[in-house]
# Entry
Amino acid sequence: MLERIQKENDIKTLETEELELLAEEIRKFLIEKISKSGGHLASNLGVVELTMAMHLVFDLPKDKIIWDVGHQSYTHKLLTGRKEGFDELRKYGGMSGFPKRKESACDAFDTGHSSTSISAGLGYVQARDLKGEDYSVISVIGDGSLTGGMAYEALNNASSLDTNFIIVLNDNNMSISENVGGMSKYLAGLRTADFYTGLKKGVTAALNKVPVVGDSMIRKMRKTKSSIKQLVVPGMFFEDMGLTYLGPIPGHNIPILCRALREARRMDGPVLLHVITEKGKGYEPAEKRPDKFHGIGPFQIETGEPETAKKKDSYTDVFGKVLCDEARNRPEIVAITAAMADGTGLSRFRKLYPTRFFDVGIAEAHGVTFAAGLAAGGVRPVFAVYSSFLQRAYDQMIHDVALQNLPVVFAVDRAGLVGSDGETHQGIFDLSYLSSIPNMTVMSPKNKWELADMLRFALSCQGPVALRYPRGEAYDGYEEYRSPLEYGKGEMVYRESKIAIISVGHMFEAASEVRDELKRQGYCCTLANARFVKPVDEEMIEDLCQDHLLVATVEENVQTGGFGEHVMEYVSRKGLKAHVLPLALPDDYVEHGSIQALREETGIDVKTMTEKMIRAYRRITDGEELL
# Structure
């Protein structure tokens, strides 16, 4: 069946009895391909039939399907003729694991973060009506994403529509980890409300038998707030907001899904179709552990186990272990996650100290202000969050934490390049946005030993501290270079002259390799570890400028607003004589690929950085301007 899908809408050429075969083939295809490339498996297995139903009912690319987050769009990509792209899924230059407008006209909106699809869909609806066009807009959002406040802002705004807008609630009781909070409990109640769905069917069937007026009565009941739903399910949340609610319906039954989608398309105003799916459906290891198979590397299909055994602790592991150790003797320490206890290393903390662990759901802005309240109340909150998701709480960091100088520790995981998830997940802006905030201290460790020391140090600071570290195995070199931390002070590792390298955080390993190469080529070279991005160690900068012609800064962050620019500004303002060469990422979005491929592409690999330093040094000694 899959071979007959060469482009969008080809699924409509299949016979009804062939659709189940296609669903089976799609699942086998996804399991096979993702077992080799890695990617988001459980979420995609859960929406196979839902995606097929939408492609059967709607016409692409005319109609617009907007995927919240977008990691569940693999079946959508298959049904729009991108089957061959899965051999290069998430590889540099290959197909993205998320919707991309530049990749296909059938991808209506680029996504990667949660709780955005209703807002984007509402914008499409208003643009459609303003231009007098005629197409359907379908925003697909998960129950986990409904913990994000932006989704409710959009629902509130959408309630005033008098034109069709379809919101599909994909309810699998999971975000990445199991869902938490009131909305999760509310939806769980709807899932089990069999008495309601049975009564609704009975009433509808009875009215259908009434000549002439039966159909009109059914339509009126669906449109009025005093409908049968209000009588039988008190506090029907979505109806009270002004949306027509349909469901819940089984999310793996294609005929039922198609009928419901067609009914939703016929209605005026906003419609929420509640669909119950099973994350990981069709692959037993993913059904049992959907959180493990949310985003996974290459694995063995037979067992579900990773292809390569884990060898070293990651930075995330080190953070989690040290936090638990500190919490043992410090009852004031509490931990916060935004629906990512496993991903941020807090699972052990949750197990050991359940009353001191808080999962706020996919709600980073709320998480930051919640942490501020905890700190104001006299405890020590540690908010562990991915760099790209912390962007969503910039105002709260400024207004609620830093303005009051509250002692909140931000454990900023997945900082720098993260690789295969691409533009929406690269943590390459945090040094810029964090260092722009008054009262914020920003630290970044060179190895796992320093991460442990920095976390302990951060827990003793009196104001907000952001501790930034990358994804992946923790560098364990240079253990012997472990001088005590002093606030705002960097670390001199090798002191020579002529060329100085100041490394930020996990770029230290590459920076030390650059120094080794420069030494092999006969250059004197100093190597320093910044430790603090804010405040910058001004004394160290002045000292280096005394006997170095070139000071190169190395960071895995965009150049604008980064550490290198802060050093350049200080050197310029003080009139110091050394030339500063900031080696950073370009001011651009970095696509998906391996870390090494992306570093080479962006010019911060060892070879390119060495060549840039030598070229800059020669221009200085030849009397040329560096820039």
